[in-house]
Batch of 3 targets.
Target 1
Amino acid sequence: QVQLVESGGGLVQAGGSLRLSCAASRIIFSISTMAWYRQAPGKQREFVARIFSAGSTDYADSVKGRFTISRDNAKNTVYLQMNTLKPEDTAVYYCYTWNLTNVWGQGTQVTVSS
């Protein structure tokens, strides 16, 4: 079945940057829409960003201008570059796609200290 494996999370100070990666397997990656979601403690999972197969993107208002989603079809990998991080960005970040069903990665923790 489709597998998504995230990496790149960690602890960073407010104002810092991180880049998350999500490697996909067993999927025709180039035609797949890929997305990032996040879930903070005690909160519902929320949409962060998405990139379509043609490369167009959209973002949650809370991250516009700070986060950039991109993809490398040759590597079956989607990235999330996160700049100017804030403590409220602290969450587990999940990679997501749809392939006859919802497919989620295992998540990677991002912690932003103030």
Note: The radius of gyration is 13 Å.
Target 2
Amino acid sequence: QVQLVESGGGLVQAGGSLRLSCAAPGSITIINTMGWYRQAPGKQRELVASIISGTTTNYADSVKGRFTISRNNAKNTLYLQMNSLKPEDTAVYYCNAPTPIYRWGQGTQVTVSS
């Protein structure tokens, strides 16, 4: 089973920005319908953004207007641009399909300080 690789996380102050990336190994092509999930300590993993057939995007209310999901087909990479970050955005972020089909990767840690 394919495992995707997330990167781009880090420590940022509230109000700051980060861009997360999700790439597939080798010649594997990421499917057109994908999502970004996050899991905060002690909480269940939640889907925060999705892109359907490479075009239509959906967002959880908690991130709407601040996060943008996109993909670059030439680079076979999925992105999550996160602006106006809040301490409650602190979590490990993962990429996968909205109905998960890939093996869960290690994710990338995002920590937002107040």
Note: Residues 2 and 102 are 5 Å apart (CA to CA).
Target 3
Amino acid sequence: QVQLVESGGGLVQPGGSLRLSCAASVSAFRFYSMAWYRQTPGKSRALVAGITSRGSTNYADSVKGRFTISRDNAKSTIYLQMNSLKTEDTAVYYCSLGNNAYWGQGTQVTVSS
């Protein structure tokens, strides 16, 4: 059974940084595209960043230049390095595997002074 476990969320001041991790329990992890989404109350889940099996990346316009997605196939893990955080980045962040076939449980990121 596929499991995705996110970690690294928390409370940070505006301008600060956090790194999220998502560990996947799946065979042949390296062949899957992965992504980070976020959701705030009353809104749909929105794509933050994606990474293909070959390492190509894409980002939402709102996070370009501030967030970086990466993957470590040896650890079956993806990361989201978030810098220069803004209050509007506050959300529950989810990772997904394989074109959203599977989702993690989410991790809360709160940006507040």
Note: DSSP finds no helices and eleven strands in the chain.
